Amino acid sequence: MADKKIIGNAAPRVEGEEKVSGGALYAVDVVLPGMLWVKVLRSPLPHARIKGIDASRALKLPGVKAVITGQDVAGAKIGKKIVDMPLLANDVVRFIGEKVAAVAAESEEIAEKALELIQVEYEELEPVYDPLEATQPAAPLIHPEVTSYGGLLQPMEKPSNIMVHLSWKKGDVEEGFRQADLVMENSFHTSRVHQAYIEPHSCVVRANPDGGADIWASTKSPFNLRDQVASALRLSPEKLIV
Predict the structure, then answer these.
(1) One domain for residues 107 and 208
(2) 119-124 and 48-54: which strand pairing?
(3) pLDDT per residue over 85-118, tens digit each?
(4) Looking at the domain assignment, is residue 92 inside a domain?
(5) Domain range holding 238?
(6) What is the torsional sign of CA 102, 107, 108, 114?
(7) Are residue 57 and residue 102 in the same domain, yes or no?
(8) Are residues 113 and 219 in the same domain?
(9) Residue 169: which pLDDT band, with cuts at 50, 70 and 90?
């Protein structure tokens, strides 16, 4: 048998040495001249109404260039399938960690300090912690305006926590049960799964004179990211390079 070039031989990862030595370049390593740093303020509550945001102290901090809230980007949403996530929460937060405000500053340290100066007044709403409880008729409605969202897999006549009903059937299941020597029925729960990537989530954007932008991001789906950003900001996808 002729010697194989690939099968049966070790194939070293072309990027392996750079990763284990710390020499690999990630989005977080990109630094541009005059770059501003952006930090995001996130909700500490799972479900609450935003009654007010006071960013006046943050704006007075030397080095802070801008503070934006959901009111500044009202209506702008993203979503891989259903377009349901506002760029910044507007009126209501729906999970712990949802983005409430963003700060742009001359340094990372200043941006982080500015977040501490932003005051948010919340009115707590009843949360839903269990996905099965969320399907019950009496469960709090998390997305009252869901019927207006883009990308719905099925039209929705009235708001619901249930996104879609799907059913797959192949063969005669009941007949299969009747012929089976043993039928087992149970409920199974799996643990959380994480991809365990070694780079931090980050994004660097360079605005171009033509109204477009170059984007460096920690993503495995550059075209999906491009299309979502373009849709949310009402830009032509051709204006964005990821």
Answers:
(1) no
(2) antiparallel
(3) 999 999 999 999 999 999 999 999 999 999 999 9
(4) yes
(5) 200-242
(6) negative
(7) yes
(8) no
(9) confident
